Amino acid sequence: MTIADRLNDKTLFQTQSFINGAWVKGEGAVAVTNPSNDEVIAEIGDVGAAGARAAVDAAAAAFETWKKVSPFERAKLLMKWHALILENADDLGQLITLEMGKVLREAKGEVLYGASFIEWSAEEAKRIYGETIATPFPGTRGWTTHAPIGVVGCITPWNFPNAMITRKCAPALAAGCTMVIKPAPETPLSALALAELAKRAGIPDGVFNVVCGDAQEIGPVLTGSDAVKMVGFTGSTAVGKLLMRQAADGVKRVALELGGNAPFIVMDDADIEAAADGVVASKFRVSGQTCVSANRIIVQASVADKLVEALEKRVSALKAGDGFDGSTDVGPLIHHTAVERVDALVRNARDSGARIITGGKPMVDELGGSFYAPTLIEGGSADMDVACFEIFGPVASIYRVEDEAEAIAMANDTPYGLAAYLYTRDVSRVHRMTEALDYGMVGVNAPMVGAASTPFGGVKESGIGREGGKWGVEEFTELKYVLLGGVD
Ligand code: ADP
């Protein structure tokens, strides 16, 4: 039976959470709605703190055997999971569009992106190397190993309901850890579908658990339980700080992927048409609801009119609509409140003197309560809300600067430091400016930076740790040093 069949007859989604290899029903029924039309597509019960504890116990028990499974065997199981995800990619893509609204081609792209972390991690499982070390003590040998850290609690967001799970779980499972995942209440279905496929792949019971329910009940179990050794989180900076404070009591490792305020800098020597394409790709993907979305378009004044013209042409042509409609460029936001938030930012910008070039209003009458018109604005003050806060919506806001120094000063004038973008064709400028940008990732003439092989993460209040590549696997291991005496 395919995932879509299961969704239709609700056999998968009447059950609620996935604990120790079994489907567990929770209390009550939290509606999961399609943001495009507000239809209820599933109702998910809450397993609460007790369910979270059961999942942690199951993960702790499973860790004792999973850590001893050979990395070659772990890699094989991960590759089976990967193959099943690819076989079901269409269904998984549809689930994403249904539960969070993004356009179907982006949803399918997310499934492939998510799967790529499983493939990469399966390969990497076999390459977790220790080192031998010279020691100052006669007759001794020293070496290191990377031991799996243990049970990992994961709290994931709704904007990438599939890939934010695989990006954490695949390297963790590859390293020998076991997982308890709490998905966002808006998007539990993708998580449950991944659990179903993990089970079909033969990943042992207890290794991959999904608990749905009240974040304020489940969160403290994950951050407070002795058995949990690490907490991985993608979401808002406010919740990330809260989890970090909670985890401090048990001195648990945290990996945090938090908010951003990405500058998209266009210098006078840039290819302006390519830069305009880049802004659209970075800003309007997932309706602007990604933590690496361009948040401030910073352009050198001498080429600003040209960029504004190129962007106006592109942004005014973007079609908002349902994610299943093949002609849609920009889908809905996650819910009505998100539209109200974005609209408040734009109204504040207008009050601060910004000019609305195109869009600038909700599309409640035309499309429904979760839609906001693709918007381009320019001007206003540097301290208006749209410049200071993560927009998380389809609004591009342009700021003019005179030179490199002003561009860098403005780009770095934020507590965030996740992704930045720079468009220039001057190689010296590339070095100078990428070194000066206080960001974890910089895309130069490239509007998207993430891949399974590369380190994803931020500095300052954008987070701690890196996901992806060899760094992503290392996050889930403890470095152990052994000194052996009496050798000579
Ligand atoms: P957003 O506002 O975009 O939903 P959040 O940071 O609130 O971002 O949500 C990201 C994830 O964090 C979701 O899974 C959500 O349920 C979870 N979350 C929210 N509040 C808490 C909390 N107090 N403790 C633990 N998890 C939380």
Task: Describe, in plain words, how this protein is organized in 3D.
- The structure is a single chain.
- This protein is α/β, with parallel strands linked by helices and 488 residues long.
- The protein has two domains: 3-258 and 462-481, 3-Layer(aba) Sandwich (Aldehyde Dehydrogenase, Chain A, domain 1); 262-451, Aldehyde Dehydrogenase, Chain A, domain 2, CATH 3.40.309.10.
- It is 42% helix and 22% strand.
- The protein has 17 helices and 22 strands.
- The chain has helices at 3-9, 11-14, 48-66, 71-87, 89-100, 104-125, 163-175, 188-201, 215-224, 237-248, 272-284, 301-317, 336-351, 385-388, 404-412, 427-436, 469-474, and strands at 17-19, 22-24, 27-34, 39-46, 132-133, 141-148, 151-155, 178-182, 208-210, 228-234, 253-257, 262-266, 294-300, 354-358, 375-379, 395-401, 416-417, 419-423, 441-444, 459-460, 463-464, 477-484.
- The strands form six sheets. Strands 14-15-16-13-12-18-19 form a seven-stranded mixed beta sheet, with helices on both faces. A six-stranded mixed beta sheet has the order 9-8-7-10-11-21, sandwiched between helices.
- Helix 16 (427-436) links the parallel strand 18 and strand 19 (441-444).
- Helix 3 packs parallel to helix 9 (215-224) and helix 4 packs antiparallel against helix 6 (104-125).
- It is globular.
- The protein starts with a helix and ends with a strand.
- The mean pLDDT is 96.
- Bound molecules: adenosine-5'-diphosphate.
- Residues 155-157, 182, 184-185, 215-216, 219, 235-236, 239, 242 line the site of adenosine-5'-diphosphate.
